[in-house]
């Protein structure tokens, strides 16, 4: 148990909380003053359009601001309104999203836009219950949208905010074990007259000052109340869960050519990881299999055709949130059989030029680039 300093805050680890009114007011005032001077100028903060703010909130889930900005601007050019997004084909939606990762976010945006268009004529709802009923929107996202767009006094609790609050009270368990307490604290601290600015300030504090490593406490407006700071143990908070080793999968991937120099690609089912994206077929190497044996088996199981495995094209290392993959990619020749979408949504023969119009996962884009280099070398 961490020994606490003699501060105005008194909290139990996972139970109820109490915070004197003067402490709340001081925290609110100092944070808003800091935000007025230090807050980031971000494109979605220059609008009150709930649709544009919704898009930003979804894109910012598990993705850094600097990565999001060009995607956000490109998205709004492609789909400037809810109705434009609702009417778009999913393939186009995923193509615009391509490279941002966590593709369920794009699928949920598309599905939710269709619901909004169907139920409220394309007008984004201002009622929190209606917002929470939309696909892909939880309590933090709803609070972020409605506070930013309509200045509604709704709390948030994203990763940055959890870290700030855990350090503020020197939370003695990992945040995942104290979510009710952290929600209560976020709601208690929320400045009711300026919830838009307060929530944005809280996120900025975590993103730019109270960072996971080496927090810049000399720039923080809350050090006067921060338990972790006064204990000199900022790096020990938030406390972490014990994590299991990350699985590593070895995948055999086939670039299948036919006699017309077309390449076979397949579309994943719409649900699950990378749902709705196109890819080069293949699968996991089983125990005792060679890569060639794996690729032949997978293609027979997935597409019902016979292939000859040829030369190695490229090996790609790629990491997802909960596992890593090594993609071993080989040129293959179609030998016999008509391809069938046995374990996928759809299949197509395409030229290397045509392939650019299809949305692919990030790792598969590297395969396409390797193919371009290979074809160019054959011509020269």
From TrEMBL:
<feature type="binding site">
    <location>
        <position position="268"/>
    </location>
    <ligand>
        <name>8-oxo-dGTP</name>
    </ligand>
</feature>
<comment type="function">
    <text>Adenine glycosylase active on G-A mispairs. MutY also corrects error-prone DNA synthesis past GO lesions which are due to the oxidatively damaged form of guanine: 7,8-dihydro-8-oxoguanine (8-oxo-dGTP).</text>
</comment>
<dbReference type="InterPro" id="IPR003265">
    <property type="entry name" value="HhH-GPD_domain"/>
</dbReference>
<dbReference type="InterPro" id="IPR023170">
    <property type="entry name" value="HhH_base_excis_C"/>
</dbReference>
<dbReference type="InterPro" id="IPR044298">
    <property type="entry name" value="MIG/MutY"/>
</dbReference>
<keyword id="KW-0378">Hydrolase</keyword>
<feature type="binding site">
    <location>
        <begin position="279"/>
        <end position="282"/>
    </location>
    <ligand>
        <name>8-oxo-dGTP</name>
    </ligand>
</feature>
<protein>
    <recommendedName>
        <fullName>Adenine DNA glycosylase</fullName>
        <ecNumber>3.2.2.31</ecNumber>
    </recommendedName>
</protein>
<dbReference type="InterPro" id="IPR003651">
    <property type="entry name" value="Endonuclease3_FeS-loop_motif"/>
</dbReference>
<dbReference type="InterPro" id="IPR029119">
    <property type="entry name" value="MutY_C"/>
</dbReference>
<dbReference type="GO" id="GO:0035485">
    <property type="term" value="F:adenine/guanine mispair binding"/>
</dbReference>
<dbReference type="InterPro" id="IPR000086">
    <property type="entry name" value="NUDIX_hydrolase_dom"/>
</dbReference>
<dbReference type="InterPro" id="IPR003561">
    <property type="entry name" value="Mutator_MutT"/>
</dbReference>
<keyword id="KW-0411">Iron-sulfur</keyword>
<dbReference type="Pfam" id="PF10576">
    <property type="entry name" value="EndIII_4Fe-2S"/>
</dbReference>
<keyword id="KW-0227">DNA damage</keyword>
<dbReference type="Pfam" id="PF00730">
    <property type="entry name" value="HhH-GPD"/>
</dbReference>
<dbReference type="GO" id="GO:0051539">
    <property type="term" value="F:4 iron, 4 sulfur cluster binding"/>
</dbReference>
<feature type="binding site">
    <location>
        <position position="364"/>
    </location>
    <ligand>
        <name>8-oxo-dGTP</name>
    </ligand>
</feature>
<dbReference type="InterPro" id="IPR020084">
    <property type="entry name" value="NUDIX_hydrolase_CS"/>
</dbReference>
<dbReference type="GO" id="GO:0046872">
    <property type="term" value="F:metal ion binding"/>
</dbReference>
<keyword id="KW-0479">Metal-binding</keyword>
<feature type="binding site">
    <location>
        <position position="282"/>
    </location>
    <ligand>
        <name>Mg(2+)</name>
    </ligand>
</feature>
<dbReference type="Pfam" id="PF14815">
    <property type="entry name" value="NUDIX_4"/>
</dbReference>
<dbReference type="GO" id="GO:0032357">
    <property type="term" value="F:oxidized purine DNA binding"/>
</dbReference>
<dbReference type="InterPro" id="IPR020476">
    <property type="entry name" value="Nudix_hydrolase"/>
</dbReference>
<dbReference type="InterPro" id="IPR011257">
    <property type="entry name" value="DNA_glycosylase"/>
</dbReference>
<dbReference type="GO" id="GO:0006298">
    <property type="term" value="P:mismatch repair"/>
</dbReference>
<keyword id="KW-0004">4Fe-4S</keyword>
<comment type="similarity">
    <text>Belongs to the Nth/MutY family.</text>
</comment>
<keyword id="KW-0326">Glycosidase</keyword>
<dbReference type="InterPro" id="IPR015797">
    <property type="entry name" value="NUDIX_hydrolase-like_dom_sf"/>
</dbReference>
<feature type="binding site">
    <location>
        <position position="302"/>
    </location>
    <ligand>
        <name>Mg(2+)</name>
    </ligand>
</feature>
<dbReference type="GO" id="GO:0008413">
    <property type="term" value="F:8-oxo-7,8-dihydroguanosine triphosphate pyrophosphatase activity"/>
</dbReference>
<dbReference type="GO" id="GO:0006284">
    <property type="term" value="P:base-excision repair"/>
</dbReference>
<dbReference type="InterPro" id="IPR005760">
    <property type="entry name" value="A/G_AdeGlyc_MutY"/>
</dbReference>
<dbReference type="GO" id="GO:0034039">
    <property type="term" value="F:8-oxo-7,8-dihydroguanine DNA N-glycosylase activity"/>
</dbReference>
<feature type="domain" description="Nudix hydrolase">
    <location>
        <begin position="247"/>
        <end position="373"/>
    </location>
</feature>
<dbReference type="InterPro" id="IPR004036">
    <property type="entry name" value="Endonuclease-III-like_CS2"/>
</dbReference>
<dbReference type="GO" id="GO:0000701">
    <property type="term" value="F:purine-specific mismatch base pair DNA N-glycosylase activity"/>
</dbReference>
<keyword id="KW-0460">Magnesium</keyword>
<keyword id="KW-0408">Iron</keyword>
């Amino acid at each position: 148990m961490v020994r606490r300093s003699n501060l105005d805050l008194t909290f139990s680890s996972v139970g109820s909380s109490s915070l004197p009114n003067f402490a709340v007011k001081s925290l609110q005032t100092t944070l808003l003053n800091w935000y007025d001077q230090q807050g980031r100028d971000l494109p979605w903060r220059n609008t009150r359009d709930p649709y544009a703010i919704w898009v930003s909130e979804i894109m910012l889930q598990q993705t850094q601001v600097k990565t999001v900005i060009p995607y956000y601007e490109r998205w709004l050019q492609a789909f400037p309104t809810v109705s434009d997004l609702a009417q778009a084909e999913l393939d186009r939606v995923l193509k615009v999203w391509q490279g941002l990762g966590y593709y369920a976010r794009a699928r949920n945006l598309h599905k939710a836009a269709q619901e909004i268009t169907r139920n409220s004529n394309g007008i984004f709802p201002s009622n929190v219950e209606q917002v929470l009923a939309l696909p892909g929107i939880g309590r933090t996202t709803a609070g972020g949208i409605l506070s930013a767009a309509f200045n509604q006094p709704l709390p948030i609790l994203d990763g940055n905010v959890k870290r700030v609050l855990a350090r503020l009270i020197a939370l003695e368990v990992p945040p995942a074990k104290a979510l009710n307490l952290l929600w209560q604290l976020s709601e208690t601290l929320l400045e009711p007259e300026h919830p838009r600015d307060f929530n944005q300030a809280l996120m900025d504090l975590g993103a730019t000052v109270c960072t996971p490593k080496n927090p810049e406490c000399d720039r923080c407006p809350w050090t006067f109340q921060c338990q972790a700071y006064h204990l000199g143990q900022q790096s020990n908070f938030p406390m972490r869960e014990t994590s299991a080793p990350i699985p590593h999968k070895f995948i055999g991937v086939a670039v299948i050519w036919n006699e017309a120099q077309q390449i076979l690609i397949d579309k994943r089912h719409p649900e699950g990881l990378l749902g709705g994206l196109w890819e080069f077929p293949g699968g996991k190497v089983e125990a005792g299999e060679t890569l060639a044996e794996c690729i032949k088996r997978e293609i027979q199981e997935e597409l019902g055709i016979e292939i000859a495995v040829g030369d190695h094209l490229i090996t790609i290392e790629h990491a997802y949130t909960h596992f890593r993959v090594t993609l071993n990619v080989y040129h293959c020749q179609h030998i016999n059989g008509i391809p069938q979408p046995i374990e996928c949504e759809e299949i197509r023969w395409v030229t290397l030029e045509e392939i650019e119009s299809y949305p692919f996962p990030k790792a598969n884009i590297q395969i396409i680039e390797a193919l371009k280099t290979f074809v160019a070398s054959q011509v020269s």
